[in-house]
Design a protein that fits this description.
Largest sheet: 7 strands, parallel
Structural class: mainly beta
Distance between the termini: 56 Å
Number of helices: 0
Helix content: under 10%
């Protein structure tokens, strides 16, 4: 690997700039604070990345592991953001975990799109999931959120065209965006009372969607006329 400095005036080599495309398993020492954009992109033999128990890593650049053969990763607690396309097209990536007390506050555009992730627990620190974040994840079964989730926004098509079958939307979510859960395998969805708007085609072509539950104390102000287009809904329950 090529290691560099995040600050040229500092004598500390704390950044992974580039890794050999033949690298297989990686251990990231405590001294590393950043993994640069594209650092492990196209690493076709890499299977795992492990971090020291007292990792100081706080930043991973966009596309850092994109198109790699990575199978699993545990994101250190000091990392503040999952950047754009960070794990895009990781077709062997099934397991992604976050250390306790994670500081991740956003999952950016296309971060996990077209990966093979199966299940994920989103840390309570995450406030936004941007568009296409989990788009076309053809092995994903469930998405869960930690208790006391701070999530308020999920972007357009974030989970669209995936095999997602289960998601419990967190209690601070305000908007269900366009196409956000379209063409998924959801069988039921509960709309939290915090949701004010359900946008166009939010649940379009959800062939398995039988049940929609809406909280009796809902703050819902607007549902687009196309929000559930071509979905085979059997029941709407207000409770």
């Amino acid at each position: 690997m090529i290691v560099g400095k995040s600050n040229s005036s500092n004598g500390e080599f704390d950044t992974i700039v580039f890794a050999s495309r033949r690298i297989d398993n990686v251990f990231i020492p405590t001294s590393i604070k950043r993994i640069d954009s594209f650092a492990f992109c196209l690493c076709e033999k890499i299977e795992s990345v492990d971090f020291s128990g007292d990792s100081k890593l706080n930043s991973i650049g966009k596309c850092a592991f994109a198109y790699s053969s990575l199978k699993r990763i545990i994101i250190p607690s000091n990392v503040e953001c999952i950047e754009e396309c960070e794990f895009m097209m990781c077709k062997n990536l099934k397991s992604v975990e976050f250390e306790k007390n994670s500081k991740v506050d956003s999952i950016k555009n296309g971060a996990f799109s077209r990966s093979s992730i199966e299940n994920i627990l989103i840390p309570s620190s995450v406030k936004t999931i941007e568009k296409l974040a989990f788009h076309s994840c053809f092995n994903i079964k469930s998405v869960e959120f930690e208790e006391n989730s701070n999530l308020v926004s999920i972007g357009k098509s974030a989970f669209a065209q995936s095999t997602l079958g289960k998601i419990v939307l967190p209690p601070r979510l305000e908007t269900i965006s366009e196409f956000v859960l379209s063409q998924t395998k959801l069988t039921k969805i509960s709309i939290p009372s915090s949701v004010k708007v359900i946008e166009n085609n939010a649940f379009e072509n959800c062939d398995c969607l039988d049940l929609i539950e809406i909280d009796r104390n809902s703050n819902l102000e607007f549902i687009s006329g196309c929000a559930f287009s071509n979905s085979l809904i059997q029941s709407l329950v207000i409770q």
